[in-house]
Structure formats: C-alpha cells, structure tokens
Amino acid sequence: MPTSLLRYLDALEPRPIKNLAEYLSGLTAGRLWLKVLIGMALGLLTGAALGPSAGLVAPDTGSLIGNWLALPGMLFLAAVQMIVIPLVFASIILGLASSENVEQLRRLGLIVVLYFVVTTAFAAAIGLWIGAVLEPGSGLAENLIEQVSVADAPAPMTPPNLEEIPETIVRLLPGNPLGSMVEGEMLQVVIFAIIVGIALVALTPAQSKPLLDLLMSLQHVCMTIVRWAMRLAPLAVFGLMARLTSQLGLNALLGMAYYVATVLMGLGVLLLLYLGLVWSLAGQTPGSFLRATRELLLLAFSTSSSAAVMPLSIKTAEEKLGVRTSVAQFVIPLGATINMNGTALYQGVAAMFLAQVYGIDISLGGMALIVAMAVGASIGSPATPGVGIVILGMVLTSVGIPAESVALLIGVDRILDMSRTAINVAGDVVASKIMDRWIGDSSAPAHGPVG
What helix, strand, coil percent values describe the chain, rounded to 5? Predict the structure, then answer.
C-alpha cells in the first residue's frame, strides 16, 4: 500500500472509533455494569410482583404493564440493530485500507477465517461435553415445559439442503449490496466490505480519499447513535427482565438455575482456554490480558452486544495489547460477525439440555452435526442482543429437537446473553492479538504494552 495513503489515514482526526471508545470507558468508570445488574435484580422483583403467582394485579393488567416496561429495552435493541451494518461495513473497509499491502490482506484473511472456524467448532464441542457430563436437563420438572407458551419462541432458521448449497454459496456474493444491507444479510455485507477494502488498497490516495472521508463520517454517525443507546442500557435490562419474569413467573426461572450454572461453567472453561491461547501463541500473560481487557469485558457484559462495544474493543487491542491498527480494525469487526464462540458453546449446552428434557438421545453423529450447524449458523449472524436464541432454533431442528422448545430458555436468556457476549468479545481481542503476532513484522512498532 502506498505510504502516502497510510499517512493520510493516520492524519484523519478526530477518529470516531477512539472518540467513542473514550466515552464507553467513561461509562465503565461510572459503573454501568453495576447499574445493569441492579436493573436486572429490580426487573426480576418487579416481574415477580406483576406475575400471576403473586396475584397483586390481574393477569391482563400485569401483561400490559410488562409490555410498557419493556419499551426502553425494545428501543435499545432496535437502536443497536439499526447501526450494526453501517458500523461493521465502515470499520472493515477502514481497517483494510490501513493495511500495508495486498499480500498481508491475503495472509491475514485466510488465517483469521480458519482460526475462527476451528475455535467456534471447538467451543460448540465443549458445550456438548459440559452438557453431557453435568446433565442440566435430567432433573427438570415436566410441568415447567407446560408453563411456557410456544408462541414465545422465535421463528427458527432453516438450514439449506444439499441441492441448495451451490446456490447458497453463489448468494454469498451480493448481487445487490444495498439490498443485502436493507435485508440485514450480514455475511454478504462483510464480503462486499472486504472486496471494497481490498480495491481501495490498490488505488492511489487521491482516488480513495473521497470514499474514506465518507466512511469516516459514517462512523461518526454510528458512534453518535451508540452513545444514545448506551444511556438506555440499565433501564432496558430492567424492563426486559420485568416483562419476562411477569410472563413466566419467578418459580420457572429458579427451576432453570442449574442450566444457567452449567452454561456459565462452560463459558468459564472457554475463557481459561482463551487465556492459555493468548499466553502460548502471543506471549501475553493471563493476568496482564485480564487487566487490559477488564473494562471492555464489563461493558460487553452490560450491553449484550459485541457491535456496540466494537470501538472499545479496537482501542483496547491497539493501545493496551499492542496490536497494529491494520490488524485490529480488520480482525475485530470481522470477529464480531463470524467469531461467536461463546454463542456456539451456549448452543451446545442448550441442545444437550433440551434433548435431556424431551428424552431425546443424541448420537455422536448428531453431536457432530450440532457442531457443524453451530459453526455455520454463527457465520454472518448479527452482533446484537438475543440473536443466539434465534440461531439455536436451526441447530435444534438439525437433530430432531422441536424448535419451539427454545421458548423454555427465553426466561433466563438475558443473563446468558450478557455472559456469552463478554466471552465473544474476549475471543475477538484474543484473535487480534494472535493474528498480529503470527503475521506481524518484528520491525513494526507497537501501539502499547504487550504484557
């Protein structure tokens, strides 16, 4: 890549990613995560009071109040979903445009995609193993299933059959990029962004400058919307938890405690594996990595969206882990789209849990199919709250588990969504650190301490 274009990119001020990262850091310092936990606890209590078991209000009145309480949460989710595509699109292109050359892009792209696929499959396998060993669904009361309405279940995704696979592969290249953006086809948008970014690398600075300026402005707009959405996070969690608890009842949620503990244990195992990877492959000690990413993981937990914290993820990778800008701004937005290891692990545990609840025996072949489906479903999924529960429907149908059974999990999905998002974000940062070490030039300057 021409040196003059690199100088131009470095001279662009202010950088919206870093500006918003500072703002997000301020939210963490203001204990946003604690406010979210308090909101969750108050939501549980409020929902229990509004629920039919308490008998304080009529069921219709409780449902009406719960829907209004959930309004801030629905607005929060809508705001985050609204900016995911333009944020990922702009970040990937700007990250690619800051790369040194096309050869580096080729090496980085192949290695990082292979890394994401392998680690996602491994995470799903861990989830199946944890679920098979601990058996969280074996002692679940049968009447709990009857308390959950299948009307609450999101529509499951449908996997393509063998005859449709060639056409599916062709559709990965968007014939109408604007149409893909409108329809929310994230993987097609990512592929289009990669193509545009590589093309920009081949252009002269004078030719690429207008589009780079436009993308910088687009990032500014996205960052402003993210700032607005973050103000709603504690109230959003309160409202969503209140509505869910009022619909299901507190007893139903408590009956799922062992399942929640099993998923959290699996996510803890995955975090330990991340720490081992970044230590053995990138030379970053576990203690220094956790100190460097503490604020980021807390904020990811609070927001349940790896897209919303993407600016802070990039800043943390660059300034606290010493990852080069070209690597961080390519790997992290790409990871927010296709690197959902925490979600894959959750799907493995959830599949085993529901299979045990319904008395379905999953063979080794079925487990392998779940791993493959979890990997395929995670690629191109939006980095927004609650998407894991929708993807799960497709994974379940692949092994004969009723897709509507995911309604049983909705009541406790909020805490699990927050937890697996934190692990997903940790995986993105770990990947950027490892990729920077694998393809890095020893002469390249570091951006910060590397631990």
Answer: 80, 0, 20
